[in-house]
Amino acid sequence: MPLPTSPVIRRARLGAELRQLRRREALTLEQVCDRLGWASTSKLSRIELGQSRPDLADVLDLLDVYEVPPPQRDALIVIARDAATSRGWWKALGEMGERQRTYAELEAGAASIVEYQPAVVPGLLQSPGYARERIEAGRLLYPEVNVEADIRARLMRQDVLRRADPPRYTALLDERVCDQADVSPEVWREQVAHLVALADLPHVTVRVVPCAAAPRAGLHPLTGYSSYVFPDPADPRTVMLETLTADLRLVSEADVTRYERMSDWLASVALGGDETLALLRDSAAGSANGRLEPERAVSPQGG
Which of 5, 88, 94, 263 has the CB geometry, 3.0–4.6 Å to 82, for a possible disulfide? Predict the structure, then answer.
């Protein structure tokens, strides 16, 4: 079910707007909570930080305290409804862990997505067999993971690329992604066929960055990342960094701009579309000679 906006981003925007309104009125967290009869400041703090799904009644109370006039009030009510997200859609994500749910919410409302991966195929492009081998390998670190549920969740996320109004999607893959000796040959052939089919979609771009390529003075990203732009220009552009144990969300203009610049540099040295597909097909045929030995990468539970 496509969403017109990304709930996690709308929560962040709503929180920032409410914080700005509170500061405009020169009110502290304690003063606002006293006026509303809220037991502690933690509830308001979580709303302002975008860490919880807001209750519309609470938002209306806050807008009353800040005496927000009708045009701005109406706009913020729309944002608050988006931030709360559709209950039906939220239920559909029930099998997802918190990390996958965050990615799903970002992807669902994005107008464009750019991902860089140094060692594994991104989650949105993984075939079922490849996803299974990665998730099962990850159980060495995450023994509690439900493999079947995680696969279903990942495949559900991939529907975003085949919906009626998909985001523009670009995957920039380090050449080491093609050296997949740590998955079975059959699974890698399935994965390459899946990548070729997706790359044929008009809104999907898959490019390989050669190991010998140097974007700018040898500067490469230290980790994989995902970059999101949303239809409403007032929604903050966002970068997600996936680490072994947690995900870091960056929304500051300076941080996001640096990653967008890095994406441009990587794209400038990446192979063209036809060259990328030829390299992938060669790797599936077992003729990937002369490239770096593969790193046995474990994909965390988010992207």
Answer: 5
Burial (CB count within 10 angstroms: exposed 0-12, middle 13-18, buried 19+), residue 62: buried
Residue 276 has pLDDT above 80, yes or no: yes
Pairwise CA distance, residues 90 & 102, whole Å: 11
Residues 242-266, mean pLDDT to the nearest whole number: 92
* CA 241 distance to own-chain centroid: 9
- Residue 35 in tokens: 């006026």
Please give the single-letter amino acid code of residue 272: G
Q: Are strands 112-117 and 225-229 parallel, antiparallel or unpaired?
A: antiparallel
Measured on CA atoms in the order 37, 39, 40, 42, is the torsion positive or negative?
negative
pLDDT of residue 289: 40
Bridging pattern class, strands 247-250 and 238-242:
antiparallel
**At 69, is the secondary structure helix, strand, or coil?**
coil
pLDDT at residue 300 above 60? no
Distance CA(75)–CA(108), nearest Å, equals 21
Interacting residues of 150 by C-beta distance below 8 A, sequence separation 6+: 97, 100, 131, 135, 301
188 vs 183: CA distance, rounded Å: 6
What's the rounded Cα separation, in Å, for the pair 53 and 156?
22
* Helices within 51-146 (DSSP H only): 56-65, 70-84, 87-92, 98-109, 128-138
Instruction: Please write the tens of the pLDDT for every residue from 142-195.
Output: 888 888 888 888 888 899 999 888 999 999 999 999 887 788 999 999 999 999
Measured CA to CA, the distance from residue 118 to residue 171 in angstroms comes to 11
- Please name the helix (run of DSSP H) or strand (run of DSSP E) that holds residue 4, with its range, or none: none
Q: Is-above-0.85 flag for pTM?
A: no
Pairwise CA distance, residues 11 & 81, whole Å: 10
